């Protein structure tokens, strides 16, 4: 399965990678700066600036782009090849991450969702920084999950030594993410919170089980707390500083100049208020309200690169987030829930009581669940963007998308298994009825959701029908007799969402020249133009 989804994703990312034969969007900064990093002249790199223009971002991503230019030359293939490599490798990382958290079936589904996601494909085909950021964030969380496995083994054994290996590896990975873009620090913060709760919670469990007269069998909770955050943060800082190695050499290792540079970068990000046609607030990103056009040429035929998400997977992922929140708060699948502790069967009041009476223990039981890990990685990377007033762009979702797909895969697994509760089933049945009515209404009457009635019908065909198939699968309940039908409907959903929708939209993902009328039909919403 891993080979199959990686091959699919690789073909989608590498096919016609050198086209269009022009600088696309911010490639005009990153590709030229990467060329300058290699010591080439201004004329060779096509720039009028003797120094890099994208200094407001750390250098690691540009050094990675420079590797491709070094091998394949300063051309479109040379400056895009590393994005395709890292974008394909991201599929492998997320597949393994999902396999360890969710199991074999969900791992394969996650791999397929990541391999066919529109935004991830686009970011893997251009020389921008975000796909490198997404790769290092996913790699860091893979190491975090490996640390979780180690912690659970030590807890089950009731003894173990101090082992910082996976924590250091995770910190280094998140440091690499921060050395691509500062927003990698959000992921590091989420990871530190998770690992601190796991290690300290496991140490407390082991310490409680010890006889007061026997020697301690594991590090103390205080020791775990005091070593966890430095073991993750210090490697991150070290990797970040190493990414500036050449800069330090060129500036005679001046710390004063380095701090001035960091201050200038911070000032830029805090004071940037220049308007941009494709800027959009963070709350609109999951709705795919305002994608970003990286490239467009018109005429009888249109050639377009649009950075956007797949409505057939992104919109259900938002509903999946609610299901994951339920799973986490009720500690379903928590491997550390105390025996005899009820699963909050009496409702929300029980959860509030638990939170008030035993917050650290309750949070420990919650945060060790796969649902909580996925949600933390998603939410703690997304929410900080809501606080910025500077122009923000849809493609900032790139490092978050793998965790949206993890949330969707977990929910699809539960749909097939029939794990949903009666209340969820009632809501699903109601949603199916409402979705069906909405689909019929959009099909027969112009409401302004699309550019015309035909546009509304394409919204129904490409997003509504897959979501409707998924809703019917949920509504079929949890009996084993209906499992085969749920599996079939989830298969239909994946075929429509990852197959048909991708086939239809790939021309505006990969810059195919198509008749102008066909291009117009793929712009489902006026805000996509």
List the main descriptive attributes of the protein structure presented here.
flat, mainly alpha, three-stranded antiparallel sheet, 22 helices, single chain, 3 strands, 66% helix, 529 residues
Please give a quick description of this structure:
This protein is mainly α and 529 residues long. It is built from 22 helices and 3 strands.
- What percent strand? under 5%
Low-pLDDT segments, ≥5 res: 339-346, 353-358
Helix and strand run: HHHHHHHHHHHHHEEHHHHHHHHEH
Strand order of the largest sheet: 1-2-3
Total strand segments = 3
Radius of gyration: 24 Å
**Derived structural class:** mainly alpha
Given the structure, what is the number of helices? 22
N/C terminus separation: 37 Å
Q: What percent of the residues sit in helical stretches (DSSP H or I)?
A: 55-70%
Shape: flat
Largest sheet: 3 strands, antiparallel
Please state the average pLDDT score. Answer: 87
What does this structure look like?
The chain has a domain at 1-128. It is mostly helical and 529 residues long. It has 22 helices and 3 strands. The protein has helices at residues 2-14, 27-37, 42-45, 60-72, 76-102, 104-115, 118-123, 130-157, 165-178, 184-209, 221-243, 245-250, 255-271, 311-329, 348-357, 359-367, 370-382, 401-417, 422-444, 453-475, 483-509, 516-522; strands spanning 292-297, 301-307, 513-515. A 3-stranded antiparallel beta sheet has the order 1-2-3.
